[in-house]
Design brief:
The chain is α+β, with helices and mostly antiparallel strands. Helices cover 24% and strands 26% of the residues. It has one domain: Alpha-Beta Plaits, CATH 3.30.70. The chain has two helices and four strands. The protein has a two-stranded antiparallel ribbon. The longest helix has 10 residues.
């Protein structure tokens, strides 16, 4: 599983990095994905982060 962020939509609220720091971190005022593949133990948190993103800018690729 992979995660991608549409940086044009990201408002930088940081919810993703709070919910799933294994996959996301803040880079200035935008979030970024810090792994190529989501670790299996972080998959649920990654999905929660995507579902919680107010801008809907996170895409999960199974």
């Amino acid at each position: 599983m992979r995660a991608e962020i549409d940086h044009d939509l990201c408002s930088g609220d940081g919810i993703c990095s709070e919910l799933c720091p294994e996959v996301f971190e803040m880079d200035g005022d935008k979030a970024k994905v810090i792994v190529d593949e989501v670790p299996p133990e972080a998959e649920d948190a990654c999905r929660d982060a995507a579902d919680s993103c107010p801008e809907g800018c996170i895409t999960i690729i199974e």
